[in-house]
Amino acid sequence: MKTFFIKFFLGAHAMQKFKTVDELVNQLKPERPVYCIRKKPIQVASKTFQNKFPGTILYAVKTNPHPEVLKTIIKSGIDNFDVASIKEIEDIKKINPEAKCSFMHTVKSRESIKEAYFKFGVKTFSLDTRDELIKIIESTNQARDLELFVRVSVSNEHAEIDLSKKFGALTSEAIGLLRLTKQHAKKIGLSFHVGSQCMHPISYAKGIAEIGNIIKKTKIIPHYINVGGGFPTIYPDLVPQSLNNYFEEIKKSLKQLKLNKFPEIICEPGRALVAESGSTIVRVNLRKKQKLHINDGTYGTLFDAGVPNIVYPSRLIRNGRIISKKLTSFDFYGPTCDSMDYMKGPFILPNNIKENDYIELGQLGAYGLTFRTKFNGFYSNEIYEVEDNPIMSMYSKETRKAFLVA
């Protein structure tokens, strides 16, 4: 009886699995949006970074903190994490108490710094101002075992989402800040971020060159150089170069620094590790010519399709009916009463799409779950695992097969 109860309890909380998205739709015929998680694409992306990037990989937890995603990343060999809050630290420690968390948000409350250090043993912090350095020193009671990173502002010109306006010290400020930080840290690092969905490897070369300028002027060789995140994934209108080109550009630029003692290299990928793992299944509520009103939107998993206007790959789920070979460009509107709940697209779908049809939108492993709200009472937490391939992929069939076998 006890064994049965344990199995029943675990089964009730296990994520239901389907072989394909089509099988899921045919069986469940969901009324609300459904989010799908694929574990294999996470494994492939994770192994790619571990095999090709010349240093340590920190997964940016903000991108997708779902427990199954985090477990898959840890199982694949990554046990270092870029966190931005106490909640993210808690999420990681629940799964792996030994995992290293680095608090890379450059603006933190004193309470968060104190709790991270004394409760969770976090010793790695990022900063971009003298005031933040003072907060870290005072909140850790003048700790002498800190790893402190000075974040430098660099150009985000090739990024789809610019992060340079909010974070990072100008080079002129970073020089003095690095000297001051060195007096209070056991180990120091220099970091930068080229912006989200960076479409050209040259951005990393420019960032590393800026780091090199700071090293020359201060004559301080940091223990770490952190090239940040920004590594891209593929979308219908955003097809980046191979990730190998990014890694090679980073390696070449680091060599050009010609340092006597070489720092440990770090990166913080998020989107590039998990984007392909997620998709959302939406249902059409109404068609108005080339405008589709669907049951998820910018207040749900599709935020990035609204404000940054990222175009997700889309496909109509056949569900037993004939699909037109003629394709049409559609705009989407979400289910809320807010007219900002709008996604310009273009989303290319069969011309005969109609009410109650299901659409799968891909590349939502990055930020899909994290941006959901309960605005207007529209919210779905229906999450399932699927085993089919994503609609689009950065990786060839041979690459996927090689890493999954390994």
Description:
- There is one protein chain.
- The chain is an alpha/beta fold and 406 residues long.
- The chain is 32% helix and 22% strand.
- It has 13 helices and 19 strands.
- The protein has helices at 2-13, 21-28, 40-52, 67-75, 86-95, 110-118, 130-139, 171-182, 202-218, 243-255, 271-274, 303-306, 397-405, and strands at 17-18, 34-37, 56-60, 80-83, 100-103, 124-127, 147-151, 159-161, 187-191, 196-198, 224-226, 264-267, 278-288, 291-294, 314-316, 327-333, 342-350, 358-361, 382-386.
- The strands form 3 sheets. Strands 1, 2, 13, 14, 15, 16, 17, 18 and 19 form a 9-stranded mixed beta sheet that branches.
- Helix 10 links the parallel strand 11 (224-226) and strand 12 (264-267).
- Helix 3 (40-52) packs across helix 13 (397-405), helix 8 (171-182) packs across helix 9 and helix 9 (202-218) runs parallel beside helix 10.
- The two termini are 40 Å apart.
For the structure shown, list the relevant keywords.
406 residues; 32% helix; 8-stranded parallel beta barrel; 13 helices; disordered N terminus; alpha/beta; 9-stranded mixed sheet
Overall helicity = 25-40%
Termini separation comes to 40 Å
Mean pLDDT over the residues: 94
State the major sheet. 9 strands, mixed
Query: Taking Cα atoms only, what radius of gyration do you get, to the nearest Å?
Result: 23 Å
Beta-strand residue fraction: 15-25%
- The 3D shape can be described as elongated
Specify the number of helices. Answer: 13
- Please report the total strand number as a whole number: 19
Low-confidence stretches: 1-12
State the secondary-structure class: alpha/beta
